[in-house]
Amino acid sequence: MLPLTLLLLMTLVLAGCGSQQKTVSSIKVGILADNIIWQQIKDASSDNSLKITYLTYATNDELNQALAAKEIDVAGSQTISAFDNSKQKLKLDSLVSIGSLYWAPLGLYSSKYKQLTDLHNGDTIALPADPAELGRALVLLNEAKVITLNANFNGKGDLNKIVKNPMKLKFHLLTTADEVRLDDYEAVALTNEAARKQKLTINDKALTIEVVVPKAYVTILATRTDNQTDQVVRDFLKLSQSKQVITAVTKQAENGEQIVKMPLESLDGYETSYTEKVSQKSGM
């Protein structure tokens, strides 16, 4: 039998070892598709005692409904304009954006053409039906001088906002891009998330992409108002904008993704101009 003093000493040593173990927090994050951003955040979390679980949803609306229902703690993958539009449509007043995260270019993809000038009169282009994403696609086509939008365009997608369509292009609206086939259309406008689901890259099939950061299309993180001061949520936001993540994304991104670290206040007023660009350099 061990002496009582030795047993007490062993108990204290074991207790001390247990107290030195890091407390691991967990968080559930909803996304639309995996990309380099989410991968790098998860890699960085291994050094920060934060267990991250990603849950994937098909649409912005499904993502925000899951957030409101407390299925997830944070929602990502959606631009500030898409988030605001979905929140307003579904009357989800309990949701709030908490920080900027990244920008990834919308692209016009094609399996039939190699460059934008290959488009022919009467070709059909598939566009997202979601009002915010449709608006973004129309801005892309306007910037590429394929169409001309009404001077008072307010960012909400509406084909009636097209005032000039010299090539008499036809437009087909897609409820979801998950099932779209490039071969079915002359070109398809896809978000970064939708393109990744189809294993497309901007250097592969894109005829044109956004080349600068429009304010309205910066991707943000969102949570519930009752959760926005939660320490785990704040830790996740801080980690997502950390130097480690920024450096890794800058070196490894293959589809134009860029971390955007800036105060949310800097995105105020995005509704007034859908071609106004973020003045602060991405990743700063």
The CATH level-2 architecture of the largest domain is identified as: 3-Layer(aba) Sandwich
Spatial gap, N to C terminus: 64 Å
* Mean of all residue-level pLDDT scores: 86
Main sheet characteristics: 6 strands, mixed
Query: What form results from the Cα inertia axes?
Result: globular
- Counting structural domains, the number is 2
What is the β-strand count?
A: 13
Q: What gyration radius follows from the Cα positions, in whole Å?
A: 23 Å
Q: Strand content of the residues, in percent? A: 15-25%
| Strand arrangement across the biggest beta sheet | 2-1-3-12-4-13
Helix percentage range: 25-40%
Helix-and-strand structural type: alpha/beta
What's the CATH first level of the largest domain? Alpha Beta
Count every helix, treating DSSP H or I runs of 4 or more residues as helices: 8
Low-confidence segments: 279-284
Would you identify the CATH H-level superfamily of the largest domain? Periplasmic binding protein-like II
Question: How would you spell out the order of helices and strands?
Answer: HEHEHEHEEEHEEEEHEEHHE
CATH topology of the largest domain: D-Maltodextrin-Binding Protein, domain 2
Can you describe this structure?
With 284 residues, the chain is of the alpha/beta class. It folds into two domains: 25-104 and 215-272, Periplasmic binding protein-like II (D-Maltodextrin-Binding Protein, domain 2, 3-Layer(aba) Sandwich), CATH 3.40.190.10; 107-209, Periplasmic binding protein-like II (D-Maltodextrin-Binding Protein, domain 2). The protein has eight helices and 13 strands. The chain has helices at residues 4-19, 36-45, 60-68, 80-90, 131-143, 192-197, 231-240, 243-252, and strands at 25-31, 50-56, 74-79, 95-103, 107-109, 124-128, 148-149, 162-164, 170-174, 187-190, 206-209, 219-224, 258-259. The protein is globular.
